Amino acid sequence: MVVSRFAPSPTGYLHLGNARTAIFAYLFARHHRGKFILRIEDTDRERSTKEFEEMLLEDLKWLGLEWDEFYRQSERFDIYREYAQKLLDNGHAYPCFCTVEELEKEREEAEKKGIPYRYSGKCRLLSKEEVEAFKREGKPFTIRFKVPDGRVVVFEDLIKGAISIKVDDFGDFVIVRSDGSPTYNFVVVIDDALMGVTHVIRGEDHIPNTPKQILIYEALGFQVPKFAHLPVILGEDRSKLSKRHGAVSVRNYREEGYFPEALFNYLCLLGWSPPNTEREIFSKEELIELFRLEDVNSSPAVFSKEKLRWLNGVYIREVLSLDRLVEEFMPFLEREGLSAEKDYVRKVLEKTRDSFETLKEGVERLKVFFVEEVSYSQEAISLLENENSRRVLELFLHKLQERDNLSGQVVKELAKEIQKELNLKAKDVWHTLRASLTGELEGVGVDIICDVMPKEKVIKRIVRALGRF
RNA sequence: GCCCCCAUCGUCUAGCCCGGUCCAGGACACCGCCCUUUCAAGGCGGAGAUCGCGGGUUCGAAUCCCGCUGGGGGUGCCA
After folding, report:
1. Lesser CB count within 10 Å: N end or C end of chain A?
2. Are residues A156 and A128 in the same domain?
3. What is the pTM for the complete model shown?
4. What phi-psi label fits residue A291: left (phi over 0), alpha (psi between -120 and 50 degrees) or beta?
5. Candidate list A50, A166, A243, A307, residue with the active-site label
6. Structure ipTM over 0.90, yes or no
7. Residues A162, A167, A170, CA angle at the centre, nearest 5°?
8. A109-128 residues near strand B (Cβ < 7 Å)
């Protein structure tokens, strides 16, 4: 059975790059009817927090990723200790008593000479007696993995193809810190092996780690899984997407009123495209069906907020159900201090869903439907102060009284009559109505407003405008 | 510095494995027109890539080979 996993460390909000990695790993597992594991990599006690972990889970769920198994590395230290001991016993690892200061000095010297730094491996040479003596003294030590000399590790990456790395490029590396906590390169192997992970799908920044990990797999007699390294996501300036590029966490987009389906869909299109089709809109189920690692691009992609926006708009106007739209719109309305009956919101959105691309933008655009009193822009004021405007509004009110109810159809008829009777351009009539009704010179169609808003409310706004100008 | 990865319109990409149908297709953004009471949305059309550069191989190369350049990533008792 295929088993993939997503293994984030809880040191911040879910980053877009990580989200895409999670999505690909998830899609791959589901496509093969396999298992998808979520593993929290919190071995670094300094930077990991419970709060971030909760956010992470929340964001993942929001995106629509369900996992079959869940682990937390901080709860598995006993297991890691056991395997560290195993490596010590079978001679693949050794205690190292070098201090951080000593290592720092070595590194500086290497740099000064312009030669690439790697740990000298001098603690490899310590005799049993020396080790015992140091331990009795209570001298702190790390455990290092013994990297075999001259070895070239070759592996077939499912996305990049054959990759070979000379192991001499890095020295013996630490697998257990002096405080007893295990390091990433070590635990990742233990966990993936024990959890039966068959496909390690992760960012390409892990390529340099892979040979180290393969060495550990071998030293422990574990079967080496398949690897797939995804290209990174870049910002507009072509450097790795990071905080200084602005909104880069899933949470940011959620708060701006993006839909998880749209973000999911967009992220899939970054570095992957489905075979034999020019479609771009896909449901999660379709993506599961279509996704193949072979079709993932091997070059990095620049994140485009513009295109995400567009895609979100497509979801709002074409893909999502009206009910869903209403459901998600409500909290955004409330966040702006506005409120309305669900049915009313439904009526509004039914007619206007094709005119905005994020929920936040939607609330802004549709405010006029929900506020008690509109505020007038400078342009609207100068228009309403015009004598013609007064005549239009008065005539409109007068005619409105003769009608039982108001609608888009009715307002069109009335506008036409007014235009004729006052000998004005259609434009002028409409502009005046809009200004009095919305306080702005642009926005949602006046006919739509009259279709949706109660007649009394329309009258009230016009009366108020008339009274003010 | 050293190691690894990558390279098609501004951006995401199709095509590359199995060379001719590609004087390179689609999408976002951009420009114009139409629709129209405005802004969007929508419809139609346009511009935009000598396939990073230079050498080969071949009757023929975006597609195969070599070199160069550029970009990205890594180089921790972070993950």
Report:
1. N
2. yes
3. 0.94
4. beta
5. A243
6. yes
7. 125
8. 114, 116-117, 119
